Amino acid sequence: MDDLERSLREPELAARGLRLTQPRMRIIEIFRESPLRHLSAEDVHRRILELGLDIGLPTVYRVLGQFEQAQILVRSQLEGTRAIYELNQGEHHDHMVCVRCGRVEEFSDAQIERRQELVARQRGFELTHHRLALFGLCADCTTAERDDEPRAPGAH
Description:
156 residues; alpha+beta
């Protein structure tokens, strides 16, 4: 049983000030079963509707906020995008965001982490946490953009 599973048992939820309710369990199941690691409130609600469940969007927002406060989910507000949530697995990572399709990819790089610490220290900062998001085109969108580019006559 991992930390997340332990945190979702009734006594642990109660210790975090949350009761084990049907909407809470369903929303966690959606995160666990999703092929996508990052979901917006709208993504969660769309899946709820697909499953034929009677859980409204306001309830989804409320539960996501409660899970964020309880550190079950991590919320990221990536520039120019809606908030996304992911299961908190306790490991730090950063994000790359495709500005065309919205795809979010995680990455970890020890050299980048060391460099950020160094830059902060050099400027007299003691880091408590950070978020790094890189924005650009994913491989699929880069290929599609190249394919859409007008070509000079006679070019192959």
